[in-house]
Specification:
The complex is a heterodimer of chains A (368) and B (170).
Chain A (H helix, E strand, L loop, with lengths): L1 E3 L2 E3 L2 H20 L5 H39 L1 H36 L16 E7 L8 E4 L12 E3 L4 E8 L4 E5 L6 E6 L5 E5 L19 E6 L9 E4 L11 E7 L5 E5 L8 E5 L24 H9 L51
Chain B lengths: L6 H17 L17 H11 L6 H17 L5 H19 L5 H27 L6 H21 L13
Helix pairs in contact in B: 1-2, 1-3, 1-6, 2-3, 2-4, 2-6, 3-4, 4-5, 5-6
The chains are: A alpha+beta (368), B mainly alpha (170).
Chain lengths: 368, 170
């Protein structure tokens, strides 16, 4: 402030700063909870430009890393080859075992008619998009990553990002050639999960206090917490945690991590995706499973308001009467219908039904 | 005889450092360049420019632009970092007026107070744009690191002499 005569005059720079602060707060408040609009469009355009700049800026660094690691590898190449050969022999045995188990698993799945769930049930694996992560989140408030695939490559908001180990996050913003992925451990990330063996349901709440890091360290420093656990006593240390599919944002069955009991008595999840630094990701299209009411099929079933469940069971189990005359089967089975005592008395050797025993078949009208 | 760099050269280096502190954390260069531990150099610039009587339009405009760039790269709502940097500038202006003895200790103390105030502002403004689950902890950590390192970079942003501070007693 400068004294001018007897009064005080606020410097124009200070006035400008005050106006900008007020404008900034208003801008933040306007964007709260809004998806779309100018802010979103600007963010997407900026992500595209930043992604391109990131590729250009980190290209030499990546090439340099590769060069130095190769030079370092030359020093102990003989030992390394020997080590790899023994490892390879070991892996051959494991491979045979894995192939046998995979074959058996495929037979079981075929037997059970299970859908393919390598990336979760309902995920469109055939149309997945491979992308490289080119930018970390630059700020301490959010944990997002920018991938170099966008709307031009078919990426849409809501698609799922996974790597070879498990779930990374979800696409929250898409530009032309870039997409921003909200990571699992962001404070705003809440994902319904379950224990793979115990089927215990919970909500995975992001807890990370560190920015993500693509290269030299695992991207995640503090394991997310499990909240709202239903039946926590059944959850086991080391149990695999997968997405439960509840809520419809994620497919069911994507590996998330491993359950760990922390010292403070809470359950946390050591993220599977953080086993090694994340570089390439697979972005999976996912459309949530629609409610049956949204796609009703007229199958002649009982109305939803049907009072008797017996009718429904009867329709499922009893073959409907043919509408057109068909030739009788070669060896027709006798109908399993309990005849009324008055109409046809039971033979003497027939055992009488016990009073506490349930009826063998639902009461049905005698068929013609 | 090595001539000490001019004030303008030091200020240019200070601006470059501030710009780098915004851009480098966004690039996948490793944990050293993450934020934290990377300091928020724009806070140094905001405080230094305010204390050096940068009362024209250049300082607030530059800080707002750097804040918006930081918001863009961080994926956060536009305006959040702009508000934090501009509030540091305004607090620095007040500190320049009330500072009676501009030496390194008082300058450092003023900067510590400034960073604490920006942490408080972040605590209020960040949930507006990012929801109530957002944590100010990482920002506070980066701000504390910034405050600790301030004496090392002080010459880039301000001189310790009283002559350039309008509010200081002469």
């Amino acid at each position: 402030m400068r004294r001018t005569g007897g009064g005080r005059r606020i410097a124009p720079g200070v006035l400008l700063a005050i106006a900008l602060v007020i404008g900034g707060v208003a801008l933040v408040a306007i964007q709260a909870g809004r998806n779309g609009g100018f802010g979103q469009a600007a963010q997407q355009a900026g992500d595209g430009a930043a992604g391109a700049a990131g590729r250009a800026a980190t290209g030499p660094a990546r090439a340099g890393e590769d060069f130095f690691s190769r030079v370092a590898g030359l020093w102990n190449s003989a030992d390394r080859i020997e080590e790899l050969e023994s490892e390879n022999r070991e892996l051959q045995a494991w491979r045979e075992l894995a192939e046998r188990l995979a074959e058996r698993n495929a037979r079981y799945e075929a037997l059970l008619r299970m859908p393919a769930d390598a990336f979760g049930e309902g995920a469109d694996v055939d149309n997945s998009i491979a992308a490289q992560l080119v930018l970390d989140s630059g700020g301490p408030f959010t944990r997002t990553l920018v991938a170099n695939a966008g709307a031009d490559h078919g990426v849409r908001v809501g698609y799922i990002a996974v790597n070879e180990n498990g779930l990374i996050g979800r696409v929250v913003s898409v530009g032309g050639r870039s997409a921003r992925i909200l990571m699992l451990d962001d404070y705003n990330s809440r994902i319904p999960v379950m224990g793979e063996a115990s089927r215990v349901r919970a909500v995975l709440a992001g807890q990370a206090t560190r920015p993500p890091d693509l290269y030299t360290h695992p991207f995640q420093m503090q394991a997310p917490r499990l909240d709202f656990i239903v039946g926590a006593q059944s959850l086991r240390e080391g149990e695999r945690i997968v997405t439960s599919g509840d809520g419809g944002l994620y497919p069911r069955g994507i590996p998330v991590g491993v359950a760990r009991a922390s010292n403070d008595g809470q359950w946390r999840v050591a993220l599977a995706a953080s086993q090694r630094p994340i570089d390439f990701v697979r972005i999976l299209p996912f459309v949530g499973i629609e409610r049956p009411e949204d796609s009703l099929v007229d199958d002649g079933g009982p109305p939803l308001a049907s009072a008797s469940s017996v009718n429904a069971v009867g329709r499922e189990t009893v073959t409907p009467a043919p509408t057109t005359p068909t030739p009788p089967p070669a060896a027709p089975r006798p109908p399993r219908v309990v005849q009324p005592q008055a109409a046809a008395p039971a033979p003497v050797e027939t055992p009488q039904p016990q009073p506490e025993a349930p009826p063998a078949s639902p009461p049905a009208e005698p068929q013609e | 005889m090595i001539r000490p760099p001019s004030r303008a050269a030091l200020r240019a280096w200070g601006l470059a450092l501030a710009v780098l502190s915004v851009i480098l954390p966004a690039l996948p260069l490793g944990p050293i360049f993450a934020q934290p531990p990377m300091p928020l150099a724009v806070l140094w610039a905001a405080y230094g420019w305010a204390a050096e009587d940068e009362s024209g339009w250049r300082a607030p405009t530059t800080l707002a632009a750097l804040g918006l760039l930081h918001d863009q790269l961080a994926g956060g709502p536009y305006g959040l970092f702009a508000v934090l940097y501009l509030s540091a500038f305004l607090v620095g202006r007040v500190a320049a007026v009330v500072m009676s003895a501009p030496n390194i200790v008082s300058l450092w103390g003023g900067f510590i107070v400034t960073t604490l105030i920006t942490i408080g502002i972040a605590y209020i403004v960040a949930p507006l744009g990012l929801g109530r689950n957002v944590s100010v902890g990482p920002y506070a950590e980066a701000a504390v690191i910034t405050a600790i390192l301030f004496p090392l970079v002080r010459p880039l942003y301000m001189s310790a002499s009283a002559s350039q501070r309008a509010g200081a007693r002469r």
